Amino acid sequence: MSSRLPILVDLKFDPETVARILKTAFADRGSINLADPASKALDLTGIDYALLWKPDADIFKRAPNLKVLFSGGAGVDSILSIPDLPDIPIVRFADRSLTTRMSEWVVMQCLMHLRLQRAHDRDQRDRVWGKLVPPEAAEVTVGVMGLGILGQDAVAKLRVMGFNVIGWSRSKKQVEGIETFDGPQLDTFLSKTDIVVGLLPLTPDTTGLYDKAFFKRLRQGGALGKPVFINAGRGKSQVQADIVASIESGVLGGASLDVFEVEPLPANDPLWHLENVFITPHDAAISEENALFRHVETQIARLERGEPLQFVVDRKAGY
């Protein structure tokens, strides 16, 4: 299918790291790094493949004959929102390392809320020997929203830690060992949930999903007292003003956020100062560049052997 033309790369990651790794990546065909000023003079009309993350808007005018797009992350909303997106396959990034990193973050956040870590931090600052008696994991129900590769791995690892785990997805999925719910059963799912974990892609249906009305449907009076909101999916799925209001009013007992409506999170955002809110800078599951490039090489090799691509995005579903 390809005459070993270079792979077009437009990644908004750390430019020095990307440039360094690209010197040896894609050894059999090479790459064109659009972060390199010299690339502006190149003719891209013959390029077959592009690896993109939040690409420049003119990329499809410069490279009009692309055959496959590879996303630089598990999410693809930054690509699907580009005007004049060509009707070609889009392959999202799925990798053991990315999945493992996400599950580590989710488990860590659930444990910090379970074990009242903010209270321990406060006591340490104040030099108070304040012993606490948190509930056991088995007394807390974690509800995972999104049961794709990331969600199912998080479910498995939360179960190992002893949490009672349930799951919700837009369409019904069977996941061994847990009770699952689908679209119309959202209210039932939320009513059983003490810690809700958002791992959903950004679609029109999930934009602004996590709002005041959503938080009020979570279980009150469970083992943690107040429910907790954890989101490592997409920032535009949450209404941040409603997170703040729900914590201040006592509807929510806390939150852990890795994604935000605007990134970086502005210095004057009230989330920075709220008690029992953990903030991380969208690094829960960073795409490791070597793994990403190996993933692209694997998928191109499959295609050129006549095998189907894996992890192809369903444009109607948005993921």
Automatic annotation (TrEMBL):
<dbReference type="InterPro" id="IPR006140">
    <property type="entry name" value="D-isomer_DH_NAD-bd"/>
</dbReference>
<dbReference type="GO" id="GO:0016618">
    <property type="term" value="F:hydroxypyruvate reductase [NAD(P)H] activity"/>
</dbReference>
<dbReference type="Pfam" id="PF02826">
    <property type="entry name" value="2-Hacid_dh_C"/>
</dbReference>
<protein>
    <submittedName>
        <fullName>Glyoxylate/hydroxypyruvate reductase A</fullName>
        <ecNumber>1.1.1.79</ecNumber>
        <ecNumber>1.1.1.81</ecNumber>
    </submittedName>
</protein>
<dbReference type="InterPro" id="IPR036291">
    <property type="entry name" value="NAD(P)-bd_dom_sf"/>
</dbReference>
<keyword id="KW-0520">NAD</keyword>
<feature type="domain" description="D-isomer specific 2-hydroxyacid dehydrogenase NAD-binding">
    <location>
        <begin position="108"/>
        <end position="282"/>
    </location>
</feature>
<keyword id="KW-0560">Oxidoreductase</keyword>
<dbReference type="GO" id="GO:0030267">
    <property type="term" value="F:glyoxylate reductase (NADPH) activity"/>
</dbReference>
